[in-house]
Amino acid sequence: MPRSSSEDYVDRFLAEYAAKFQVMADPLRLKIIILLREGEKCVCELVEALGQKQPLMSYHLKVMNEVGLIQRRTEGTWSYYSLNQDVQEWVQGCCRFLTAKDIIDEHMRGEDE
User: Fold this and answer.
1) Domain limits of the chain?
2) What is the mean pLDDT of the segment spanning 101-108?
3) By CB neighbour count within 10 A (0-12 exposed, 13-18 middle, 19+ buried), where does 32 fall?
4) Nearest of 28, 16, 26 to residue 90 by alpha carbon
5) What is the number of other CB atoms lying within 10 angstroms of the CB of residue 52?
6) Which residue has the higher pLDDT, 42 or 5?
7) Which of 3, 5, 24, 109 is the 20 to 30 Å CA partner of 78?
């Protein structure tokens, strides 16, 4: 039996959520999120605050950026990072979707706007 577009949407939606949770499962990345809740930081500030080497920090920031948890702003040769959204609100929002029907209904409301 062929899959419906709603089933495909639910699978994509859940895959995006799972990717963010996987990224947040790392203690160093959680520390980065905590620091970025205070506001935008350059890589050098994060390196100093967390006592990590710059290449390692850049790797973690890249991974976090790829899943949409943080955003990057470049000014000359400096890179600045900030939260893309309030992570606490995002996690609480995840808990709102209890069934595939809830996810589809939310998606349909978004298309109507």
Assistant:
1) 28-107
2) 71
3) buried
4) 16
5) 17
6) 42
7) 24
CATH number of the domain at 28-107, please? Answer: 1.10.10.10
Closest CA to 75 of 44, 52, 51, 49: 44
Q: What is the model's pTM?
A: 0.72
- Measured CA to CA in angstroms, residue 109 lies from 70, 76, 88 at distances of 26, 41, 23
Phi, psi angles (nearest 5°) of residue 108: -65, -40
SS3 readout for 39-81 = CCEEHHHHHHHHCCCHHHHHHHHHHHHHCCCEEEEEECCEEEE
Per-residue pLDDT tens digits for 16-71: 888 888 888 999 999 999 899 889 999 999 999 999 999 999 999 999 999 888 99
Each residue's pLDDT tens digit, 64-102: 999 888 999 999 999 999 998 777 677 666 666 556 677
The closest alpha carbon to 19, from 55, 65, 72, belongs to 65
The C-alpha atoms of residue 113 and residue 110 are separated, in whole angstroms, by 5
